[in-house]
Amino acid sequence: MPTPQANETAALSFDPAAVSHLLAPELTTTEQPDWAIRTRGLSKTYAAIGPAPAKQALKGVDIDIPAGSFFGLLGPNGAGKSTFINILAGLVNKTAGEAKIWGWDIDRNPRNARASIGVVPQELNIDAFFTPREAVEFQAGLFGVPRGERLTEAILDAVHLGDKADAYARSLSGGMRRRLLVAKALVHRPPVLVLDEPTAGVDIELRHQLWTTIKALNTAGVTILLTTHYLEEAEELCDRIAVINHGEVAACDTTEALLARLDRKDLTLVVEEDIAEVPAELARWNAQLHPYRRLTLHYPPSQTTIGEVLAAVQAAGLTIHDLTTHESDLEDAFLALVRQDRG
Prior knowledge:
- Helices cover 29% and strands 26% of the residues.
- It has helices at 81-89, 110-115, 132-142, 152-158, 174-185, 204-219, 231-237, 255-262, 306-315, 330-342, and strands spanning 35-46, 55-66, 70-74, 96-101, 104-105, 117-120, 192-196, 223-227, 240-245, 248-254, 265-271, 288-290, 294-299, 320-327.
- Helix 8 (255-262) packs across helix 10.
């Protein structure tokens, strides 16, 4: 008898065309809103409980998420990300402001708004005694999807769980359970899919398999809103990113623009000569001397070319034995924004 992990050892191949029939009808037409999600002045204050004072979790959040985008929502623990998602999902009532999902106001058109969004939670909220087929059918029933319109088999096949449709959920591996959560979120064919820390506790191979599924859905037209603490994931996957800190938007821009804000590049050299101090020619780049003839220089690529730096190294009478460069990544940008906000 094969183990639960047996069909996960091979990499999943996923054709976006294979999920086209799972998409919301509005995704197959040209009539789509400009914004999948749009909030204005969104605020939430949790009431005081006992001696604990009231807490303002969101403070006038304005965010625009373009339709069809892969959008990252980042922030430290307690920044307000979960509150933001729970308001969109209808699990938390906002205190002030407005929010629209696929053009539907969550107050004036709550049913349409909630029908436009699917949420993949961080927690594995799966009944251990349900099979994947039963879990998906039950979820479809909760959303009022008529039996004749349900796409249970197609959804399970799309997330590569068709051959496990009748196995108890408790027998599924961690990666399969994560994909089952995605399947449950797709039962009502929402144009917007929210993933809250979907790869928390998932190993590298299963993480890549999950992203194969999600990227195919995004390529097919589904808007993805992702929260994650794996910043390398966000940098690779997301075309736009918002950083929330202390309930406020610290930044919201394209991934490329956020990275460009730092305007910093590090150059590490190993030189042939023994040196006791940083040469004067290199001091303007905040050069640092390390053991074993290593020098690290930091320069802004928008103002300085690497050719200028190397020319200065040569002018200092140094011979380069080896060199490496490091460009700022999303983690650097994230830390800079959070620390700036603290200041």
